[in-house]
Amino acid sequence: MAKSRVQFICQNCGSAHQRWAGKCDACGEWNTLVEEGTAGGIGSGPANTRNARKGRAVVLTSLSGDIEDAPRIVSGIGELDRATGGGFVRGSALLVGGDPGIGKSTLLTQAAAALAAKGHRIVYVSGEEAVAQIRLRAQRLGVADTPVELAAETNVEDILATIADGKRPDLVILDSIQTLWTDMADSAPGTVTQVRAAAQAMIRYAKSTGAAIVLVGHVTKEGQIAGPRVVEHMVDAVLYFEGEGGHHYRILRTVKNRFGPTDEIGVFEMSDKGLREVANPSELFLGERHAKSPGAAVFAGMEGTRPVLVEIQALVAPSSLGTPRRAVVGWDGARLSMVLAVLEAHCGVRFGTHDVYLNVAGGYRISEPAADLAVAAALVSSLTGLALPADCVYFGEISLSGSVRPVAHAQQRLKEAEKLGFGSAVLPLGSEELVGGNGAGGIGANAFQPTELADLVARIAGSRRSRADEEE
Ligand code: TYD
Ligand code: MG
């Protein structure tokens, strides 16, 4: 008798196990193994090899050739089009992931409405909300009278039959992938097998008809529902919608894009009437700046091709604890420790008896090492109580030897700073000849370019002396 083919599938990484275990060997997550049948499951192979048919020859073709149709559908929502690389690509599948409640449905409702208003056929299938709820949201967004076609449905076969009716849709939005289920797999909705099989069916539909599809996926922590990661490799592009709790702005980040640049971001602000585009993110992250307070430094950063100015705030305070506290929001804690160590070892600045708090304004997250110099400046400023010049931006990477290393895109960073009214900059030496020369103009002429971090520390400490001189 054939053994029943039951498997335990990790809901985090999708690996299959013969028996249940508390921890997945493959990815190390706990409590993520769920029993699933293998019928039609991905990775189980053809169920019956005897029925395997002979292959059919397909026509091979060349790389050059005509491409029919305008390949992209542009929504007109600038920040969304930027993140997708210029609009939704026909015949492609896009995954929009994010935490529950971050605003994925809101964003896609707005996109659907904008596209439908332009005459595209847009189908919005929701498996999470009833039609009435979606209508309420549309009313709130002021788009209730756009001709978006709506359905509350979760079965893939039914959805495919529905959209096959009439003109081929230009865009089909499936909100969310975790609620979809197909007859082809017999696990529960939300499991890896179902999510993959349903996504596969929808992607096949997109490729064969040329309709663009958007899959919405919730990021899940519990592991009981398969996360968007299990379909990342199947789709053409992956966007994550992120935001920091308590802040209104949201960032749409491109993680993968077969048809455009990755590391792009779109910035939005959640208002009571939906998402508002933020075309100039620097203004958002610099919003709450007060001049003359020690511990604040403006970092000229880059997000993809776009410069973003953010304020970095440091607070260095005497500690009553044996092991002083180090707390970081919006930056890497290990990198902070490194900058502190370099300041101690090479610049003679001691933090051993001080608590150090570091915060990136606006709840923004920085991943660039180029922020090192701005962080160091903020730390030294807070420790000495000397405010940094309010019209100065900082960027540069710090090496363990205490030298300041050049970073890419110096020109763009300076241009953005100049545009926002900054008049001077501290940046690495060798950040291209352009500094001070053509294009960079005024701000380049006022640039201070230390080769060693100690030079910057001396300059900040030196500001006390010059200020004292002025007072005399
Ligand atoms: P939603 O798009 O439903 O999130 P997701 O689909 O990612 O789960 O957005 C939910 C949150 O957004 C909810 O807390 C309410 C808020 N919101 C606004 O603040 N303004 C609005 O105009 C809308 C439609 C929602
Ligand atoms: Mg939703």
UniProtKB/TrEMBL annotation:
BP terms from Gene Ontology: recombinational repair
Matches recorded under SUPFAM superfamilies: P-loop containing nucleoside triphosphate hydrolases, Ribosomal protein S5 domain 2-like
One Gene Ontology term, aspect cellular component: cytosol
Protein name (Swiss-Prot/TrEMBL): DNA repair protein RadA
Residues involved in ATP binding: 98-105
RNA-binding in keyword set: no
PANTHER family: DNA REPAIR PROTEIN RADA, DNA REPAIR PROTEIN RADA-LIKE PROTEIN
Motif (RadA KNRFG motif): 256-260
Record comment regarding domains: The middle region has homology to RecA with ATPase motifs including the RadA KNRFG motif, while the C-terminus is homologous to Lon protease.
Keywords assigned by UniProt, alphabetized: ATP-binding, DNA damage, DNA repair, DNA-binding, Hydrolase, Metal-binding, Nucleotide-binding, Stress response, Zinc, Zinc-finger
Organism: Mesorhizobium waimense
Pfam families listed in its UniProt record: AAA_25, ChlI, Zn_ribbon_LapB
Keyword Cytoplasm: no
Family designation: Belongs to the RecA family. RadA subfamily.
